[in-house]
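Form 7-S
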Amino acid sequence: MPIVGKKPAARLASLGRGSGIHRPLGILLLTTLSLLVGRADALEFEELAQPRAGYRVVSDLRVHGERLFVALNAGPLGSPGAAILSSRDGVLFETELELPDSEGILRLREIGGRLFAPEADPPGRSQGRIWRLDEAGFTSAPIADVTHSYDVAGLGGLLVAAGGGSDARGVLHTSRDGRAWQRVADVPAQRLRFMVVFDERVFVSKSRGRARSDYLTWQPGRAAVPVDAVQGEAHTWTWFAARDGRLLWSFSNPEARGQVRASRDGRTWEALPGLRGLIVWDFAEIGDTLFALTERGLFASEGGAFRRVATPPRPRAFAPFQQEGKTVDSESGASLVAWRGQLFAGSLEGGRIYRVDVSVLEDSARNP
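Output:
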């Protein structure tokens, strides 16, 4: 039977002072963003209060309708405690779903006008779950054969869920409605993790595990195809389908701690200059400018090399997640989203949310 998530009594947290929301920046902003790329550290991260105490990692930010949704975790796949919050103004956040015994919600996805939240580590050895937001709140149904549900994507009217079993086996499932799931692919010794839809295919990252392939691609009615794209085994941090028709792939491998490559066909890749050696957690776009959130701050590009435009607000705000003082191969990264002409970033330290106000560029346009 579907599992219904109780929506706790509204808990509100004030983030910063005032409304914090600026009017749409319009053509003026879009035509002056080029000033940003040429000015080192021109922007700043504004630290906001924690949406909820007790959660260390903001694993994802997602705009759905008129609201900004936040996924919080006490310790991804390591410590119990996960929650989803929402805000209508960027100042007050309300709890939408609370899972005190869960060890992670790593991704929020909007598909077909609905919001989905895979539960990466339910209590004990429970079956994997994909939560779905309806008018009555969040509900879920179990997915057989998996204990970890990392991500969900939409392709050709299908929902595609990536996950893995307790034996590290990777599994893909599909569903028409998010309630009944059918297994369509099974990959031994590799949990399947984060996904993106590009060129009518699903690109699926996997856990690191002595495999020759770096990721998989899958299409309905066909077998999953392992792809060996770079030297050594790649560990994928994130994918991003940019508005200019490119697929961006952020990963680490034996060649570099971090690097980003781009492809227009999903088969041939070229390096993006300015980001080599950096772990890139997430991307966002405003106008023609592409932003990259890295462990060393915010970078931006308008088609050329990436340059840093904001330094980290704290030394470990976007550094790899640590448990018990040790850097771990985190299942969760920092997050970035564009909303109402501003950037919002979720940290890997203290469960903090930061705001980057790009409206300062209006002043640059008036006073060049």
